[in-house]
Spore protein YkvP/CgeB glycosyl transferase-like domain-containing protein
Amino acid sequence: MRILYVAQLSPNDTAEYRRAALVRAGHDVSAIDTISYRAKHPLLRKLEFRASIGPDVSRLNHDILAEAERFQPEMVWADKVLWMRPATLDALRARGITTVSYMIDNYFGPRRDPGWRLYAKTIPHYDLHCTQRDVNVVSYRDAGARDVIKIQTAYEPTMQFPADPPYTDARRDRGVSFIGTSYDDRAQTLMRLHAEGLPVVISGGPQHWRGPLGGLYDTLYREGELFRERYREAIWRSQINLSFLTHGNQDEFVHKSFEIAACGGFLLAERSPGHSERFVEDEEAVFFTGYDELAAKVRKYLPDEAARNRIALAGLRRAWSSGYDNDTQVKRILERVQTIRVGRQGRAA
């Protein structure tokens, strides 16, 4: 299948992993990188983001249609594209092109981030919406979506895999490790663990942590923002890998949990139906609800290397045998796209 893939495509974005999965599956993929459509002036860039208006918005939509004319794709995959216009989607559909929106963030959630103005208008115009939440399946349908599929965030098998030979505590220099952002009350939680004498290590974008950690920033934060090989190796070097849900996004599960498991890391994740459906508790991963249980689980498993290694190995096997990878999730979406295309052809006949 010829696929026009529109997304933010830096090497550190998960959208690049999904594009690579399409290529691995044998599809002919042409890509438009939305990063190149950001205004250079910071004030104009902020205005374009918040209002979804401006010359870069127009240029992106023009270039999507121009590339569709040149490349003649059968499908356009828009991966978290906030600047697509309804008229652009209508023009693509008029050419027989199936349009797909892959959105891991939650437009309908309580966080109410800015930048969604155009996206909200496009919901009825896409052929298929891909979302990771049951609650969003209903929300999209209520907003007029033509079709919705629930998918799962996934690990990238070319980038997230176990160490060979596996790390032991002799090589692990990160104790209770969290890699990510400071959403919700994560900073307060991690500072409480530190105050109780537990060896907390935090990595991620410094802009997320400098303010929330305050005077403990230099104590708890290290190694900066970790991507690709550095991210994988930090998981290997961690005795306990923490994974929090983003409650403002109404998450059922998160990328990080599958990535940690796929790397062979010991996963201590926030308990949820989504996590519990995908890992056997205390056999393939360990879960917690609330601070007290988190602290208790950290104290239980931190000194027990054998238990951590056993659970991490079982979690690794579960992740690699159960379709928690990008290739499997992309395949599910393409199967639904094929159903849509066959149905459209039948109606046209």
